[in-house]
Amino acid sequence: MGNVGDRNGSFARSLQDLKRRGSNLLVVGSLAEHVRDAATRRLLGDGVSETRRRLFVFTDATHAGAQVGNGAVGPETTRVIDRVTPTRSAAAMPSASSTAAGLTRRRVEPTQLGSLAWCIEEEIGAFDANANGLSSGELRLCFDSLAPLVSEHDVPTVLRFLRVVGNRVRASHGMAHYHLPVSRSDPIVDELASAFDAVIELRVRDGHPEHRWELRETDFVSSWIPL
Q1: Pairwise CA distance, residues 156 & 192, whole Å
Q2: Distance in Å from the first CA to the final CA of the chain
């Protein structure tokens, strides 16, 4: 086995490779809002020193907020897709293609996952057109919760959806993360893991949020890292 320095260096190179080629990350573990926000903020990247195009997909608007992160907020840099669910009334949702607080929002009815995937692809395409080609890591997609999809559809259907969206993210060399508010030990995590490049587990230790990475390609598991 290599020493700690070798492991840390290998891990850092793996993360850079994920950023370069595009990646999809499954975020599980702690349900604490401040921990989820800390993870989302890190995964959205620095929008001040570098250009970021951020796409938020809200299914229950619980595990992320469109104001998380830094940098410019506007139609060319930040877009939101709201998926209506039975527990979220359509009257309470923004109208389709509405713009509020500098955010471009679209509403998608929860009929078929194909329509949501199509909407995500369109928004990524709009970013790509505005940027005249996205650079590696420029696109950041935040999917606030997979829980409604898992509860409404069987696993093969959810996997097909994730692979379609994931392939589009990779084609743009973007980085997408998807929150699933369950324990790492929940069987659904391993059932969905094949659609992702890594699983990120969150926890709170001594009052401080931490995260741990499992890289699927190499079976590497990192130590717990402060958020």
Answers
A1: 9
A2: 27
